[in-house]
């Protein structure tokens, strides 16, 4: 900088440096919590967007957002143990469990392959440590690969007569690996 004029000169390259860019604060961590009735509209939006993006072979959706929200609020939440993955106030995905049956596990399409599905599944397993099962369309190769990666195995093949979409599906089961057997005589 030219000290006489207070202006930057070529002799002092740092004088031309741009001001430091403001760093964006890190995103809040993703956490899993129990779903609340007030989450129903966001869960419905995730459900609809995920099915549309990941299952293009399904017929076009006939249910409105309001109808799906009512189904979530009046059927899914009261009858299932439903967990949501959130980042701050933003709902990213959900999982719904009825007994040993994982009924639903859906993510917003823009957050897939970021570990959020694995986080939800880990929490579901924590609630069902003896094992669980689920149904998946045979055409849903992405979900099948996800569940196979997490140790689920095919236990039944179905022709689609048992689901309202009439699409062939698979029943998958996860059973935890047996732990080490303690030596005889140990407490």
Automatic annotation (TrEMBL):
Which key words are in the record?
Answer: Acyltransferase, Transferase
Annotated Low complexity bias: 15-24
| Coiled coil region boundaries | none
Q: Which domain of life is it from?
A: Bacteria
Query: What SUPFAM superfamilies is this protein classified in?
Result: Acyl-CoA N-acyltransferases (Nat) (SSF55729)
Q: Where is this region: Disordered?
A: 1-28
Entry-linked Gene3D superfamilies:
3.40.630.30
Catalytic class of the enzyme:
transferase
Domain N-acetyltransferase, residue spans: 30-173
Enzyme Commission number: 2.3.1.-
Q: Name one GO molecular function term.
A: acyltransferase activity, transferring groups other than amino-acyl groups
Is Acyltransferase found in the keyword set? yes
The record's PANTHER family line, in alphabetical order, gives: AMINOALKYLPHOSPHONATE N-ACETYLTRANSFERASE-RELATED-RELATED
Name of this protein = GNAT family N-acetyltransferase
Q: Which organism is it from?
A: Streptomyces platensis
**Gene from which the chain derives:** yjaB_2
């Amino acid at each position: 900088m030219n000290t006489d004029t207070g202006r930057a000169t070529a002799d002092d390259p740092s004088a031309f440096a741009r001001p430091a860019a403001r760093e964006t604060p890190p995103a809040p961590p993703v956490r899993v919590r129990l779903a609340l009735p007030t989450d129903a509209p966001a869960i419905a939006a995730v459900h609809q967007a995920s099915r549309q993006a990941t299952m293009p072979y399904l017929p076009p959706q006939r249910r409105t957002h309001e109808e799906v929200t009512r189904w979530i609020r009046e059927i899914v939440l009261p009858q299932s143990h439903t967990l949501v993955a959130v980042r701050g106030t933003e709902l990213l995905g959900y999982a719904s469990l009825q007994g040993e049956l994982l009924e639903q596990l859906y993510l917003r399409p823009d957050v897939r392959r970021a570990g959020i599905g694995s986080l939800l599944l880990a929490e579901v397993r924590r609630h069902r440590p003896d094992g669980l099962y689920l149904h998946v369309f045979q055409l849903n190769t992405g979900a099948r690969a996800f569940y196979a990666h997490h140790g689920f195995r095919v236990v039944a093949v179905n022709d689609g007569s048992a689901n309202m979409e009439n699409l062939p599906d698979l029943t998958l089961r996860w059973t935890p690996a047996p732990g080490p057997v303690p030596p005889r005589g140990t407490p």
